């Protein structure tokens, strides 16, 4: 039974061991890369100032701190990026239905 995939915790440890000791920190590296790319697109001047939002930290989306705020920031950035790509897209509001917002973002991305 040793190493059986059905046992709790063991499978996750095996996957991390297969990927190496740095796998747990990969999401932090991805977030830093994302932030660098957003800065290249001038997201602070174009997206954040329009909505009076604070700049993202290096690990904003890597750590679940305030899911509601993080979801709204994700949707606002997604809408801004879609608009930046040349597709008009209405900016979601903070209290819009999350399912409707994600559905419209995904629908617009599929049209690309």
Automatic annotation (TrEMBL):
GO biological process, one term: intraciliary transport
Transmembrane segments annotated in the record for this chain: none
Protein's name in the database: Intraflagellar transport protein 57 homolog
A cellular component annotation (GO) from this entry: microtubule organizing center
Main location: other
Signal peptide interval: none
Family affiliation: Belongs to the IFT57 family.
Keyword vocabulary terms for this entry: Cell projection, Cilium
Annotated Pfam families: IFT57 (PF10498)
Domain of life (superkingdom): Eukaryota
InterPro entries: Intra-flagellar_transport_57
Localization: Cell projection, Cilium
């Amino acid at each position: 039974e040793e190493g059986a995939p059905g046992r709790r915790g063991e499978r996750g440890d095996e996957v991390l061991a297969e990927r190496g000791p740095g796998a747990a920190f990969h999401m932090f590296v991805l977030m830093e890369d994302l932030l660098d790319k957003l800065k290249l697109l001038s997201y602070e001047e174009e997206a954040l100032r329009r909505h009076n939002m604070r700049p993202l930290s290096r690990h904003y989306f890597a750590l679940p701190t305030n899911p509601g705020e993080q979801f709204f920031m994700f949707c606002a950035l997604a809408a801004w990026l879609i608009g930046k790509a040349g597709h008009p897209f209405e900016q979601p509001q903070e209290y819009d239905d999350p399912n409707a917002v994600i559905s419209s973002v995904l629908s617009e991305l599929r049209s690309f």
